[in-house]
Fold each of these.
Amino acid sequence: MQNLATHRIAAEKAEGRLAHTDRLPSNHWPRNPGMGLDLGWVLDTRVNLSATEKRVATLPGRRTVKKDAQAAWLLKALTCIDLTTLNGDDTTERVRRLCAKAMRPLRPDLIDALGMGGRRITAGAICVYHRFVATAVEALDGSGIPVAAVSTGFPAGLTPHPLKVKEIEASVADGAEEIDIVITREHVLTGNWQALYDEMRDYRAACGDAHVKAILATGDLKTLRNVARASLVCMMAGADFIKTSTGKEGVNATLAVTLTMLRAIRAYEERTGFKVGYKPAGGISTAKDVLNYQFLMKEELGREWLEPDLFRIGASSLLADIERQLEHHVTGAYSSFHRHAIG
Ligand SMILES: O=C[C@H](O)COP(=O)(O)O
């Protein structure tokens, strides 16, 4: 069922008043409440590896956008970035600089030259460890940009369960509006779907009103079938988003994993009517990469999944390349990477 805000936005869109890059409110779609664990559905789910690989292999050559259209897609991608710093040497100062970048990701002259003068263009969120949540919330005050905290013993997810729940509660108390949890990979590798469902249910409950993204760590899950099944179980347990990776696995986001997860999202929506968001993360660092993810989102799920309330890109260095490409689009010249030190 659509809420009032949804109707208003739909009406504005129909009248052409909602520009391509304007942010939609984060409560645009009804939140996925989850459902009981349907083991039959989980175990019936299979993935055709060669068909998946064939489908994604043809994507880069088949779909391309140029000039103004490319600039519009890249601007849209920019608004979906969860600007991330997840390093052992993170400091308060680095997090503050990242927040400043999230609020002003592009130079004003570039925004004007792209015909977007006067529009508010920001990153989708800031993503940090719990230690820096309060710093980021303070730095972003009044901007409307949410803070996402990685949690539950990120990245390995092997701390005791009660501590994981407390970690979520602590980040929510500090002002995190989004919590990126990591699942226990062993539950997937041993086919213990009930245990995965139960832990995810606890995480969702601990989040309260904060939205929860379930990081599957797909590079650890061995098969696409496991990826599809884990995606379904996390959605059944109430995940608002499913996310590929921590960025710390040997293999992080890929197009094959993305196709598998997007089809699970589609199946879940067909069955329940609820839309779940998608967040590829880890190793996405070029404008060219991100366009392929956007094409796949649009082809598999439709235009609605190109907005930040259903699509985020977890990335620590993608913004710099998007900025360079947009600057090239405007000026005809590439700037060097050292001029885009953050993001
Ligand atoms: O969730 C975000 C990832 O940790 C970012 O990975 P990245 O540093 O490869 O962009």
Amino acid sequence: MIRPGQSVLEVRHLRKKIGRRWIIEDVTFNVLAGEIFGFLGPNGAGKTTTIRMLVDLIKPTKGTIEICGYDVRRQPEQALARIGAIVENPEVYPYLTGWENLEQFARMLPGVDAARIQEVVELVRLDQRIHDKVRTYSLGMRQRLGIAQALLGRPKLLILDEPTNGLDPKGIKEMRDFIRRLAEQGMAVFVSSHLLSEIQLLCDRVAIISSGRVLAVGCVDELIANQSNYVVWEAEPRVRVVELLKRSGIPIIPQPEAVLDDSVMAGIAPDAVICQMESSRMADFVESFTAEGLRIQSVYKLNPTLEQLFLEMTEGETIE
Ligand SMILES: Nc1ncnc2c1ncn2[C@@H]1O[C@H](COP(=O)(O)OP(=O)(O)OP(=O)(O)O)[C@@H](O)[C@H]1O
């Protein structure tokens, strides 16, 4: 029995060498029961390679992966029985109905009967169309059928590679709500995505991966709060603001539009000065600016989005 908050997936110091290259250099994280965990990284960061090791499609060069305490390499049967995964395109037969597809798949799983199939069909809300041929399904419905397949064996951990890829906004929202329901029922859900805003909306915790290394792991809000040290000064004269900040060794962001979202930039006065400073130092600077005769219209801390945090950490590597 897995309790909420108990570790379901433990990945420790995972490394993978292909040919002469270390594709994965050092990846460590865990995923807890009842949480949605995001795996974020730019193109080529190593997400797919990591996922392929999680489901035992390829072998790690170093490091360990445990699922509910079972080592994926040494106890693959026990470990893999506890994972439901959609990695690469799930195999579905378009000329069969959704139900027939699930029946086919269930044959490989011990203890999965018609009642269980009906249960997952209701869970993914396909009951209205489950007896129609899959070729008549929308992409979102096919995706949900894939998830139904992955859920048949009552996994403790669900691994989804880019689950909202190709879906329209309505489909994305449905998928998000659905993933949340699964986590609420106690499942651990691991989601890889390049859609940062999506991860920010969906996930409880996130690992940021770049060039085969995990750069940060944590609660999305905490990561953002720790990283957020951008302070905006709307004060006059501007040259004096820059001068005084520089004199105190405070770095000024020369091109804020390169690191901040357009939506964030739109809310900032065009002649504002944006610098990096601990917010605890703001009050002292307000005092000294006032003493120097500067007029301060406003001063505030920016809350970066996950996207900015990510760009900072990966030093502007392009995201897919
Ligand atoms: N079999 C392989 N042989 C050689 N290089 C590989 C192999 N598989 C992956 N790579 C390389 O390893 C790096 C990581 O690839 P991976 O597919 O894991 O990244 P990713 O984060 O999933 O990116 P994407 O989202 O583009 O798939 C890339 O530079 C890729 O070219």
